[in-house]
C-alpha cells in the first residue's frame, strides 16, 4: 500500500514540469472575454470555447481560441463544428492544436462535476491541455481574473477508477485542495500591440484613475456571503448524510456481532449433539454492505467553499488596503488645505 | 316528474282492477273516454313494461354498436343495468329467476363487441379521447357486471341459436305494436284539429275504437288485457319464455276474451246510445292516454246539477292525470281554471276554491318538466297571482284549516270548520326557489332581470302574508321555516334607515330591518329543532349586522356561535352562506379600521384564488374534465342570483389593502430574518409577479394599483402610496361602493400614514443616530401625539431599539441592530456552526469502532480495532477447524 501512495507523489513533480506556465496571447484573451461577456449579459449562461496553441518545452502557448456553439442548436454536430473550425483556422495559418478549453464563471462557482469530467477527458486525450477560467464578475469590478487549471494525477486516477467511495478517496489521497493544480498565466503581446497600448494609455484623461478607490464593499460581500452560506448548507447536508450512513453501518455491525454470537452458541449446542455446525456463508447475505455515499459532491462543494473564502479574504484585504489609502489621501488633502 | 309518473302507474293498476265493474258512475260523459284509455293502458302489465324497457335499451345499444358510438353506448348500458335491476323482481316472479335469454344475448354481444374494439389497437388509438375513455369504463363495467351472469353467459355461448328465433319473433311483434299505436294516434290528431266536426269525428272515432278492439285479439303481443296478465302470473306459466307467453293462446283463454270483448261491446253500445241521447255530443273528445279532453271542454253536462261532490270528483279526475306521460299540462291548467270558475260561480264555498287553487298551483309547478330549469315567465306570473289569491283567501277565511296532516278522506269541504289537505308553506318555499331559479336564468345585465326582480316585492309580500297566517296557527317548526324564508329575503338588503337611526336622525323606536332580523332570528334560535335552520339564521343575522356596520354585534355573534369549527361539516349552501358572511364581516371590519380582523376574515376566501366559486357567484372555467355534467348542474343550482352578489373586486381590493398594511411593515421589520414567514400568500404573489416584469408601467388595474402602493410604502413614501390607493380610478372601481365612501377613505389614508411611518422607521432606523419627532410628524403629516404613541408602541413591542428623549423630542437609536452584512455574517456563523457540529459527530463515530470493518485503519484506535477483528477471525477459524 505504501508503494501505491508513493507512486503519485513521485510522479507529481515530473508532471508539473511538463507545463510550467501558460502563455496567452492578447488576442486570445480578448476574444475569450468578449465571448464570455456576451453570454453573461444575454442570458446569464456560462460561455465555453476551445483554446488553440502549441507546447514549447514547459510552456504552453495559447495563441487563439474559438467559442463552442450553444447546445440548444440540434442541427449542428459539435465535433464536426470543432474540426471544421480548426481546419479553417489552419488555412489562415493559425495554430490549430487543441490545447484546452475555457469557461466563464462567477466568483467560484465554476467547480462542478461537468467541469471535472470534461477536463478529465481533455487531459486523458491531450496530455498538456488546460482549462482557463475567466471570472466575469470580478473582471467587471476591474480585476482581470484568468486562471488556468490542470487536474492532478490523483484526480485523474480517481476518475479512471470511477469510484467515489470514501475508502477510495482516502487511498488516493485526493481532497478538494488536490483536485486541481493552478498553472500560472502570462499574457504576452506582440511588440506592435504594446506600442498601440502605450499610445492609447496616453489618451486616457487623468482624473479617470480615481475610481480605484471605490469600496463597493457591502453588495459584493453580501453576495459572496450568501453564496458561501448556500454552499455551507449543502456541505452540511452531505455531512448529515454521511453521518447517517455511519450510524447505519454501526448498527449493522452490532447486529452482525450479535448474530455471530448467537450462531456460535447454536453451533456449540449442535456440536454437543454431534451435529454438523451451521454454515457461515449466509452471513454476507443477511448483512449486505450498505453502499457508502458518494464523496465527489462534498469534495466539490468544499472546493467551492474554499474558493469563495479565498475570494472573500482577498476582497477584504484589498478593501482594507483601500481604506488605508483613502485615509492617507484624506489626511494629505486636509494637510494641504489647512495651511 | 318521475315521482308523479310513478304515482300515475300505480293508479293505472287500480283502474284496471276496477274494470270489471260494468258501469261506472252516472256521470256518463267521461266514462267512455276512461274506458278507452284503460283498455289501452292496462295492456301493459308490470312485466310487459319492464321487458319493453329492456328491449328498447337493447335495441339502442345495438344501434350504437353499429355506429360505434362508445359514449352513448356506455350510458345506454348503464341504463340497461339499472332497468334490469328494476326488472329483477318481475323476472324472479315470471321466469323463476332465470335471466331472460334476450338479455343474456345482449350481454354476450356487447362483450364480444367490446373485446373486439379493445383488440383493435389501431382503432383505439384513432378514437377520440372521450370515446376511448368510455370504452375503457364500459369494458370494466361489463366485466364486473358479467361476473354475475357467468353461468348464463356460458350456457348461451354453448348454443346461441336458440335465442335467435325468439329474438326475431320479438322483432316482428314489436313493429306491429308500434304500427298499432300510430294508427290509434292518427285519428285523434285529426280529431283534435277539426274540432268543429266534432260529432262526426266522434262517431268515427268510436268506430275506430271498436275496430281496435277487434284487432286486439289478433295482435300477438297485445296480451295485457287484465285476463292475460293475471294469466301470466299463474304458476304453471311461470317457466314459459317470454315469447311463448306472447304467442301462446289457449283456447279457453280466447273464449274468455271473446266474452269479455262482447261485454265491452255491449257496454260501448250503451254508451254510444247514451251519448246520442245527450244531444250535445261533445264528450267524446278524448285523447289517447290522458284523461283530459283536448277539445276546450265544458266541465259538466249542461243539465247536471253542480254540487260539491261533482266538483270534487271532477277535480280528482283531473288531478289523477297529473304527471302522466301524455297529459297536456297546459290543458290541465286550463281545465283547473275552468273548474275554479265553475266552483266560484256556483258559490261552493271557500274550501273547495282553495283546494282547486292548490291543484292549480301544483300543476303550474309541474308545467316545467325539468327541475333544474326555470319556468316560463307567463306561468310565473300566473303562479304568483294564484298563490297570492290563495293566501289572501286563507287569511280572509280563518275557519279553514289547511295542513299536510289532513288526509284526503278527512277533508271537510262543505261546512264551517273546513279542512283541506295541502301545505301553503311548502308551496311558498317552492315559489321562492322557483323565483331564484327564474332570476338565475336571465341575463343579470338585461332589463329582463330588472323586470323579474320587481317580483321580489310580491314574493316578499306573499311570504309576509303566509307568515301572518302561520303565526295565527302557531306551529313553531313551521314558523321557523317561514321565518327563515323571510330572513333569507331580508338579510342581504341594505336598509339605510338603520344607519340613520344610529346617527339619531330617526327616533329609536322605528322598526328597521335590523330589529326585524333580530326578532325573527331570536325566534329561530329559541324554537328551532333542526340545526340547519339555526345555523342559517345565525349566519344571516351576522351578515345583516355586518352589512349595517354593527361590527361588534356581528363579531360577538360569530365568535359565540363557534361556527368556524363545524362549518365544513354542513351542507354546501350553508357553507356558501358562511363564506358570504365572512366576506361581509371582513368588509365591515375594514370599515371599522380593524385591519387584522379584516385580513383574517378574508384570508381563507382569497387564499385559494377561487373566491368566485366559494361565494357561488359563478363557475370557474372548466379545467380538463374536472367535473362531470351532473356536478356542474348541481353547482349551477347553488349559484347565487345576481342581485345578491358581493363585489369581488371590492373584496379583493379590501383584502389586498389590508394585507399591504400588515405585510409591508412586517417585511421591513424582518428583512434579515431567515425564518420569516409570509402573512399573505396572495399578496406576495401579486408583488412577485410585478417584480418579474421587466418594465413596470403606470398601474392600470386595481391589483397593479395596490402593488404600486405597496412599493411606495416600502420606501415610506406615504403620499405616493395614498395616491395609488385612493384616486379617482380606484374610487370608481372600489371605494365608492362603500356606504360612506369618504369616511372609509379618510380612515384608509390615516392608516397608510401610520403604517408608512412604521415602515420608514424599520427600514431606515439604522441610518439615523437620532431623529426628531417633529420632523417625523411633518414628514408623515401626522399629529405629534400620534407619532409619539406609534413610536412608543414600537419600542414597547421591542420592534425598534430606541429610546425617547423627552426634552428634545427625539428618538435616540440604540444601534443594536446589526447591519445587513453583519446579520448575514451572523447567519453564516450559525450555519458553519451547524456544519461543524455534524462534522464532529462524524468524527466521534470514527473514533468509535466504525472503521473496524474497512480493514487496516490507521492510528492507535484503528490498530486496536484491527486486533479485535483479528481475534474474531481467529475464533472463527478455530470453529471452522473444529467443524471440519
UniProtKB/TrEMBL annotation, chain A:
<feature type="domain" description="MPN">
    <location>
        <begin position="22"/>
        <end position="155"/>
    </location>
</feature>
<dbReference type="InterPro" id="IPR027524">
    <property type="entry name" value="eIF3h"/>
</dbReference>
<dbReference type="InterPro" id="IPR050242">
    <property type="entry name" value="JAMM_MPN+_peptidase_M67A"/>
</dbReference>
<dbReference type="GO" id="GO:0008237">
    <property type="term" value="F:metallopeptidase activity"/>
</dbReference>
<dbReference type="Pfam" id="PF01398">
    <property type="entry name" value="JAB"/>
</dbReference>
<feature type="region of interest" description="Disordered">
    <location>
        <begin position="264"/>
        <end position="285"/>
    </location>
</feature>
<protein>
    <recommendedName>
        <fullName>Eukaryotic translation initiation factor 3 subunit H</fullName>
    </recommendedName>
</protein>
<keyword id="KW-0396">Initiation factor</keyword>
<dbReference type="InterPro" id="IPR000555">
    <property type="entry name" value="JAMM/MPN+_dom"/>
</dbReference>
<comment type="function">
    <text>Component of the eukaryotic translation initiation factor 3 (eIF-3) complex, which is involved in protein synthesis of a specialized repertoire of mRNAs and, together with other initiation factors, stimulates binding of mRNA and methionyl-tRNAi to the 40S ribosome. The eIF-3 complex specifically targets and initiates translation of a subset of mRNAs involved in cell proliferation.</text>
</comment>
<keyword id="KW-0963">Cytoplasm</keyword>
<dbReference type="GO" id="GO:0016282">
    <property type="term" value="C:eukaryotic 43S preinitiation complex"/>
</dbReference>
<dbReference type="GO" id="GO:0033290">
    <property type="term" value="C:eukaryotic 48S preinitiation complex"/>
</dbReference>
<dbReference type="InterPro" id="IPR037518">
    <property type="entry name" value="MPN"/>
</dbReference>
<feature type="compositionally biased region" description="Basic and acidic residues">
    <location>
        <begin position="264"/>
        <end position="274"/>
    </location>
</feature>
<dbReference type="GO" id="GO:0005852">
    <property type="term" value="C:eukaryotic translation initiation factor 3 complex"/>
</dbReference>
<dbReference type="Pfam" id="PF19445">
    <property type="entry name" value="eIF3h_C"/>
</dbReference>
<dbReference type="GO" id="GO:0001732">
    <property type="term" value="P:formation of cytoplasmic translation initiation complex"/>
</dbReference>
<dbReference type="GO" id="GO:0003743">
    <property type="term" value="F:translation initiation factor activity"/>
</dbReference>
<keyword id="KW-0648">Protein biosynthesis</keyword>
<dbReference type="InterPro" id="IPR045810">
    <property type="entry name" value="eIF3h_C"/>
</dbReference>
<comment type="subunit">
    <text>Component of the eukaryotic translation initiation factor 3 (eIF-3) complex. The eIF-3 complex interacts with pix. Interacts with mxt.</text>
</comment>
From TrEMBL, chain B:
<dbReference type="InterPro" id="IPR036390">
    <property type="entry name" value="WH_DNA-bd_sf"/>
</dbReference>
<dbReference type="GO" id="GO:0001732">
    <property type="term" value="P:formation of cytoplasmic translation initiation complex"/>
</dbReference>
<comment type="similarity">
    <text>Belongs to the eIF-3 subunit C family.</text>
</comment>
<keyword id="KW-0963">Cytoplasm</keyword>
<dbReference type="Pfam" id="PF05470">
    <property type="entry name" value="eIF-3c_N"/>
</dbReference>
<feature type="compositionally biased region" description="Acidic residues">
    <location>
        <begin position="161"/>
        <end position="186"/>
    </location>
</feature>
<feature type="compositionally biased region" description="Basic and acidic residues">
    <location>
        <begin position="235"/>
        <end position="260"/>
    </location>
</feature>
<dbReference type="GO" id="GO:0005852">
    <property type="term" value="C:eukaryotic translation initiation factor 3 complex"/>
</dbReference>
<keyword id="KW-0648">Protein biosynthesis</keyword>
<dbReference type="GO" id="GO:0031369">
    <property type="term" value="F:translation initiation factor binding"/>
</dbReference>
<feature type="compositionally biased region" description="Acidic residues">
    <location>
        <begin position="212"/>
        <end position="228"/>
    </location>
</feature>
<feature type="compositionally biased region" description="Acidic residues">
    <location>
        <begin position="11"/>
        <end position="20"/>
    </location>
</feature>
<comment type="subunit">
    <text>Component of the eukaryotic translation initiation factor 3 (eIF-3) complex.</text>
</comment>
<dbReference type="InterPro" id="IPR008905">
    <property type="entry name" value="EIF3C_N_dom"/>
</dbReference>
<dbReference type="GO" id="GO:0016282">
    <property type="term" value="C:eukaryotic 43S preinitiation complex"/>
</dbReference>
<feature type="compositionally biased region" description="Basic and acidic residues">
    <location>
        <begin position="266"/>
        <end position="278"/>
    </location>
</feature>
<feature type="compositionally biased region" description="Basic and acidic residues">
    <location>
        <begin position="873"/>
        <end position="884"/>
    </location>
</feature>
<feature type="compositionally biased region" description="Basic and acidic residues">
    <location>
        <begin position="150"/>
        <end position="160"/>
    </location>
</feature>
<feature type="region of interest" description="Disordered">
    <location>
        <begin position="1"/>
        <end position="30"/>
    </location>
</feature>
<feature type="compositionally biased region" description="Basic and acidic residues">
    <location>
        <begin position="187"/>
        <end position="196"/>
    </location>
</feature>
<feature type="domain" description="PCI">
    <location>
        <begin position="642"/>
        <end position="818"/>
    </location>
</feature>
<dbReference type="GO" id="GO:0003723">
    <property type="term" value="F:RNA binding"/>
</dbReference>
Amino acid at each position: 500500500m505504501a508503494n501505491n501512495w508513493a507512486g503519485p507523489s513521485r510522479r507529481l513533480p515530473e508532471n508539473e514540469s511538463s507545463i510550467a506556465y501558460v502563455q496567452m496571447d492578447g488576442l486570445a484573451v480578448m476574444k475569450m472575454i468578449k465571448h464570455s461577456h456576451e453570454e453573461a449579459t444575454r442570458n446569464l449562461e456560462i460561455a465555453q470555447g476551445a483554446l488553440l496553441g502549441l507546447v514549447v518545452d514547459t510552456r504552453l502557448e495559447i495563441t487563439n481560441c474559438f467559442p463552442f456553439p450553444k447546445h440548444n442548436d440540434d442541427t449542428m454536430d459539435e465535433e464536426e463544428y470543432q474540426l471544421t473550425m480548426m481546419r479553417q483556422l489552419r488555412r489562415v495559418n493559425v495554430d490549430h492544436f487543441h490545447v484546452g478549453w475555457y469557461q466563464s464563471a462567477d466568483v467560484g462557482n465554476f467547480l462542478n462535476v461537468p467541469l471535472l469530467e470534461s477536463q478529465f477527458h481533455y487531459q486523458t486525450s491531450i496530455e498538456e491541455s488546460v482549462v482557463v477560467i475567466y471570472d466575469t464578475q470580478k473582471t467587471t469590478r476591474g480585476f482581470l481574473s484568468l486562471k488556468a487549471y490542470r487536474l492532478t494525477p490523483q484526480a485523474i486516477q480517481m476518475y479512471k477508477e470511477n469510484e467515489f467511495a470514501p475508502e477510495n478517496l482516502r487511498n488516493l489521497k485526493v481532497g478538494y485542495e488536490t483536485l486541481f493544480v493552478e498553472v500560472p498565466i502570462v499574457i504576452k503581446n506582440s511588440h506592435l500591440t504594446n506600442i498601440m497600448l502605450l499610445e492609447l494609455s496616453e489618451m486616457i484623461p487623468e482624473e479617470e484613475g480615481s475610481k480605484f478607490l471605490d469600496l463597493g464593499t457591502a453588495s459584493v460581500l453580501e453576495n459572496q456571503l450568501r453564496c458561501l452560506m448556500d454552499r455551507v448548507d449543502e456541505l452540511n447536508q452531505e455531512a448529515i448524510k454521511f453521518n447517517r450512513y455511519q450510524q447505519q453501518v454501526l448498527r449493522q455491525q452490532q447486529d452482525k456481532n450479535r448474530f455471530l454470537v448467537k450462531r456460535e452458541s447454536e453451533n456449540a449446542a449442535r456440536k454437543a449433539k454431534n451435529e454438523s455446525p451451521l454454515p457461515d456463508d449466509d452471513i454476507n447475505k443477511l448483512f449486505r454492505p450498505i453502499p457508502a455515499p458518494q464523496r465527489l459532491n462534498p469534495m466539490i462543494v468544499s472546493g467551492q467553499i474554499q474558493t469563495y473564502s479565498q475570494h472573500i479574504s482577498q476582497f477584504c484585504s484589498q478593501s482594507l488596503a483601500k481604506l488605508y489609502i483613502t485615509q492617507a489621501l484624506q489626511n494629505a488633502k486636509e494637510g494641504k488645505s489647512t495651511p | 316528474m318521475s315521482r308523479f309518473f310513478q304515482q300515475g302507474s300505480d293508479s293505472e293498476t287500480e283502474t284496471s282492477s276496477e274494470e270489471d265493474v260494468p258501469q261506472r258512475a252516472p256521470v256518463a260523459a267521461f266514462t267512455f273516454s276512461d274506458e278507452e284509455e284503460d283498455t289501452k293502458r292496462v295492456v301493459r302489465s308490470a312485466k310487459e313494461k319492464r321487458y319493453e324497457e329492456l328491449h328498447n335499451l337493447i335495441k339502442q345499444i345495438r344501434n350504437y354498436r353499429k355506429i360505434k358510438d362508445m359514449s352513448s353506448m356506455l350510458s345506454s348500458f348503464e341504463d340497461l343495468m339499472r332497468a334490469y335491476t328494476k326488472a329483477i323482481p318481475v323476472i324472479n316472479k315470471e321466469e323463476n329467476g332465470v335471466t331472460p335469454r334476450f338479455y343474456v344475448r345482449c350481454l354476450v354481444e356487447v362483450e364480444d363487441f367490446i373485446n373486439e374494439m379493445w383488440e383493435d389497437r389501431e382503432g383505439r388509438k384513432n378514437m377520440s379521447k372521450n370515446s376511448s375513455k368510455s370504452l375503457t369504463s364500459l369494458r370494466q363495467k361489463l366485466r364486473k357486471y358479467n361476473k354475475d351472469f357467468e353461468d348464463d353467459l356460458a350456457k348461451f355461448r354453448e348454443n346461441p341459436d336458440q335465442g335467435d328465433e325468439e329474438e326475431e319473433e320479438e322483432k316482428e311483434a314489436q313493429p306491429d305494436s308500434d304500427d298499432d299505436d300510430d294508427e290509434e294516434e292518427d285519428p285523434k290528431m285529426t280529431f283534435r284539429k277539426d274540432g268543429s266536426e266534432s260529432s262526426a269525428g266522434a262517431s268515427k272515432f268510436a268506430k275506430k275504437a271498436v275496430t281496435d278492439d277487434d284487432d286486439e285479439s289478433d295482435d300477438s303481443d297485445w296480451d295485457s288485457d287484465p285476463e292475460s296478465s293475471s294469466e301470466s302470473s299463474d304458476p304453471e306459466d311461470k317457466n314459459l319464455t317470454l315469447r311463448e307467453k306472447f304467442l301462446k293462446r289457449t283456447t279457453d283463454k280466447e273464449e274468455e276474451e271473446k266474452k269479455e270483448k262482447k261485454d265491452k261491446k255491449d257496454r260501448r253500445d250503451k254508451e254510444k246510445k247514451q251519448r246520442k241521447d245527450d244531444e250535445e255530443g261533445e264528450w267524446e273528445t278524448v285523447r289517447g292516454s290522458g284523461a283530459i279532453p283536448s277539445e276546450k271542454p265544458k266541465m259538466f253536462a249542461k243539465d247536471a246539477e253542480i254540487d260539491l261532490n261533482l266538483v270534487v270528483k271532477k277535480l280528482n279526475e283531473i288531478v289523477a292525470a297529473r304527471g302522466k306521460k301524455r297529459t297536456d299540462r297546459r290543458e290541465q291548467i286550463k281545465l283547473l281554471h275552468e273548474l275554479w270558475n265553475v266552483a266560484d260561480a256556483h258559490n261552493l264555498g271557500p274550501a273547495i276554491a282553495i283546494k282547486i287553487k292548490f291543484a292549480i298551483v301544483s300543476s303550474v309547478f309541474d308545467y316545467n318538466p325539468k327541475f333544474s330549469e326555470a319556468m316560463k315567465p307567463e306561468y310565473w306570473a300566473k303562479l304568483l297571482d294564484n298563490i297570492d289569491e290563495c293566501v289572501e283567501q286563507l287569511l280572509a277565511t280563518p275557519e279553514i284549516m289547511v295542513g299536510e296532516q289532513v288526509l284526503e278522506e278527512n277533508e271537510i269541504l262543505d261546512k264551517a270548520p273546513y279542512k283541506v289537505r295541502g301545505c301553503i308553506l311548502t308551496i311558498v318555499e317552492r315559489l321562492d326557489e322557483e323565483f331564484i331559479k327564474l332570476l338565475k336564468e336571465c341575463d343579470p345585465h338585461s332589463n329582463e332581470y330588472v323586470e323579474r326582480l320587481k317580483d321580489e316585492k310580491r314574493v316578499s309580500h306573499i311570504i309576509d302574508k303566509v307568515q301572518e297566517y302561520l303565526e295565527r296557527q302557531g306551529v313553531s317548526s313551521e314558523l321557523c321555516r317561514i321565518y327563515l324564508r323571510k330572513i333569507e329575503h331580508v338579510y342581504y338588503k341594505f336598509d339605510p334607515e338603520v344607519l340613520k337611526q344610529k346617527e339619531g336622525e330617526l327616533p329609536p323606536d322605528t322598526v328597521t330591518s335590523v330589529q326585524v332580523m333580530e326578532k325573527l332570528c331570536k325566534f329561530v334560535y329559541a324554537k328551532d329543532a333542526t340545526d340547519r335552520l339555526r345555523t342559517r339564521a345565525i349566519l344571516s343575522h351576522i351578515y345583516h349586522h355586518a352589512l349595517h356596520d354593527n361590527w361588534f354585534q356581528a363579531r360577538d355573534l360569530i365568535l359565540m356561535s363557534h361556527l368556524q369549527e363545524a362549518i365544513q361539516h354542513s351542507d354546501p349552501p350553508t357553507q356558501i352562506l358562511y363564506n358570504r358572511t365572512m366576506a361581509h364581516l371582513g368588509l365591515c371590519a375594514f370599515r371599522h379600521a380593524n385591519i387584522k380582523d379584516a385580513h383574517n376574515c378574508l384570508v381563507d376566501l382569497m387564499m385559494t384564488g377561487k373566491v368566485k366559486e366559494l361565494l357561488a357567484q359563478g363557475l370557474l372555467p372548466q379545467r380538463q374534465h374536472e367535473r362531470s355534467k351532473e356536478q356542474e348542474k348541481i353547482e349551477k343550482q347553488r349559484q347565487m342570483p345576481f342581485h345578491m352578489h358581493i363585489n369581488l373586486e371590492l373584496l379583493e381590493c379590501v383584502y389586498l389593502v389590508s394585507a399591504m398594511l400588515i405585510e409591508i411593515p412586517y417585511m421591513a421589520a424582518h428583512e434579515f430574518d431567515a425564518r420569516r414567514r409570509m402573512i399573505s400568500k396572495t399578496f406576495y404573489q401579486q408583488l412577485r409577479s410585478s417584480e418579474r416584469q421587466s418594465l413596470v408601467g403606470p398601474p392600470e388595474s386595481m391589483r397593479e394599483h395596490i402593488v404600486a402602493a405597496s412599493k411606495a410604502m416600502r420606501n415610506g413614501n406615504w403620499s405616493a402610496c395614498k395616491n395609488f390607493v385612493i384616486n379617482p380610478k380606484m374610487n370608481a372601481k372600489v371605494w365608492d361602493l362603500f356606504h360612506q365612501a369618504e369616511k372609509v377613505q379618510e380612515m384608509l389614508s390615516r392608516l397608510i400614514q401610520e403604517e408608512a411611518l412604521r415602515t420608514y422607521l424599520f427600514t431606515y432606523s439604522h441610518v439615523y443616530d437620532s431623529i426628531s419627532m417633529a420632523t417625523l410628524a411633518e414628514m408623515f403629516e401626522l399629529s405629534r401625539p400620534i407619532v409619539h404613541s406609534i413610536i412608543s408602541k414600537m419600542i414597547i413591542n421591542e420592534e425598534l431599539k430606541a429610546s425617547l428623549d423627552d426634552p428634545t423630542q427625539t428618538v435616540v437609536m440604540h444601534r443594536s441592530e446589526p447591519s445587513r452584512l453583519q446579520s448575514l455574517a451572523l447567519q453564516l456563523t450559525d450555519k458553519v456552526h451547524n456544519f461543524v457540529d455534524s462534522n464532529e459527530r462524524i468524527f466521534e463515530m470514527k473514533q468509535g469502532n466504525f472503521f473496524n470493518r474497512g480493514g487496516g485503519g490507521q492510528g492507535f484506535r484503528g490498530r486496536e480495532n484491527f486486533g479485535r477483528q483479528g481475534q474474531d477471525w481467529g475464533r472463527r477459524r478455530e470453529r471452522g477447524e473444529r467443524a471440519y
